[in-house]
């Protein structure tokens, strides 16, 4: 009897202890995520969706999924497969290749400072929000090539993910909308703002070289004419849509027109940021240029006139010619490239908080 008398309380202790462990694992108690923004970047608060507040748990979960190939049909491809940290969260290949070996037609845009963007995502702006953007690669037949029900089944079969989603979003079933909320939360933390350009332009803590300063003067003047689309400041893009004279006709890729149906959007693509531009080759929507020198050569000599060509670029063309450019000297082009390279942010490229957390 004595043995039974003592055994029962011991069993109860273990049962209670077990319940407490489960309760801890499944507790929905989030911690607000606090941004540590570099000088010059405004608060992101007004741009964060009300139904997806930033939390430490949501960001950590989004980071884990961003690097997990569980989102792809055959388990071989993650978001990070095309958005590599060492390449400024872009793809070093002109076109990304999906799980079936099919190559896309556009270069993967850099994922950086996107939390402030209100003008759409992808080169043509077909996604209005970061959450909308994250929905699409999973079901794209030339990218991850699966279905959201299949992804949801895999995630809900994982005890680890069920616990993490419960902790971050208080859900008992993981669905696609919750997955993209987590990915978007992580992507909002991918912030770059401590390049030499920032330290000079905003923080005023260093001085640029004479060549870099010459590049800045060209960049911010009509002579180099970069500043109209790549706005100086925290983002180095206006995030709007322009035809930069890559082609005279746009039969292969009609750009923003595919979304809006507006003929004036033919051949227009969203302006990419110049942050970490040194690390994000190849360049342009189709990745046709592999060096900054090739990009400068295009703007200097090979801008092609078409009905939707950006007005500022059109001013650099001879009215009697359909091709032309800035007419910069070799020294001018070298100075511009030197200035562009000041926009490289090693803290962003090497930030361990952005790297793969999965074992």
Q: What helical percentage do the residues reach?
A: 25-40%
- Beta fraction: under 5%
- State the separation between the terminal residues, measured CA to CA: 50 Å
Oligomer category: single chain
In DSSP terms, counting alpha (H) and pi (I) runs of 4 or more, how many helices? 13
What does this structure look like?
With 359 residues, the chain is mainly alpha-helical. Helices cover 36% and strands 2% of the residues. The chain has a two-stranded antiparallel sheet. A two-stranded antiparallel ribbon has the order 3-4. It has helices spanning 2-25, 56-66, 130-139, 148-156, 159-169, 176-188, 196-201, 210-219, 257-260, 292-301, 311-314, 330-341, 346-349; strands at residues 241-242, 269-270, 303-304, 323-324. It is globular. The longest helix is centred in the first third of the chain and has 24 residues, at 2-25.
Protein traits:
two-stranded antiparallel ribbon; 13 helices; 36% helix; globular; disordered N terminus
In short, what is this structure?
The protein is an all-alpha fold and 359 residues long.
Produce the secondary structure layout.
Blueprint: H1 2-25, H2 56-66, H3 130-139, H4 148-156, H5 159-169, H6 176-188, H7 196-201, H8 210-219, E1 241-242, H9 257-260, E2 269-270, H10 292-301, E3 303-304, H11 311-314, E4 323-324, H12 330-341, H13 346-349
Antiparallel strand pairs: 1-2, 3-4
């Amino acid at each position: 009897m004595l043995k039974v008398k003592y055994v029962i309380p011991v069993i109860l202790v273990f049962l209670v202890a077990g319940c407490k462990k489960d309760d801890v694992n499944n507790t929905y108690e989030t911690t607000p995520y606090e941004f540590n923004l570099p000088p010059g970047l405004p608060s992101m608060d007004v741009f964060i969706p009300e139904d997806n507040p930033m939390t430490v748990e949501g960001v950590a979960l989004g980071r884990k999924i961003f690097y997990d190939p569980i989102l792809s049909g055959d388990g071989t491809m993650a978001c990070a497969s095309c958005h590599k940290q060492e390449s400024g969260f872009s793809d070093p290949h002109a076109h990304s290749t999906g799980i079936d070996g099919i190559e896309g037609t556009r270069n993967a845009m850099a994922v950086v400072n996107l939390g402030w963007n209100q003008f759409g995502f992808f080169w043509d702006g077909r996604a209005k929000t970061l959450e909308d953007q994250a929905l699409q690669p999973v079901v794209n037949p030339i990218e991850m090539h699966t279905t959201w029900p299949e992804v949801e089944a895999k995630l809900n079969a994982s005890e680890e993910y069920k616990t993490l989603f419960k902790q971050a979003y208080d859900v008992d079933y993981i669905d696609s909308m919750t997955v993209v909320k987590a990915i978007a939360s992580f992507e909002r933390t991918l912030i770059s703002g401590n390049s030499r350009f920032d330290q000079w332009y905003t923080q005023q803590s260093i001085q640029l070289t004479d060549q870099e300063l010459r590049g800045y003067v060209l960049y911010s003047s009509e002579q180099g004419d970069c500043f109209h689309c790549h706005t100086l400041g925290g983002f180095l893009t206006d995030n709007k849509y322009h035809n930069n004279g890559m082609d005279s006709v746009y039969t292969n890729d009609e750009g923003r027109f595919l979304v809006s149906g507006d003929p004036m959007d033919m051949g227009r693509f969203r302006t990419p940021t110049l942050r970490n531009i040194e690390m994000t080759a190849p360049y342009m929507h189709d990745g046709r240029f592999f060096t900054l020198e090739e990009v400068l050569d295009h703007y200097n000599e090979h801008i092609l006139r078409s009905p939707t060509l950006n007005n500022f670029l059109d001013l650099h063309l001879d009215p009697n010619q359909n091709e032309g450019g800035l007419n910069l000297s070799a020294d001018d082009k070298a100075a511009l490239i030197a200035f562009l390279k000041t926009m490289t942010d090693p803290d962003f490229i090497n930030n361990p908080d952005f790297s793969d957390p999965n074992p």
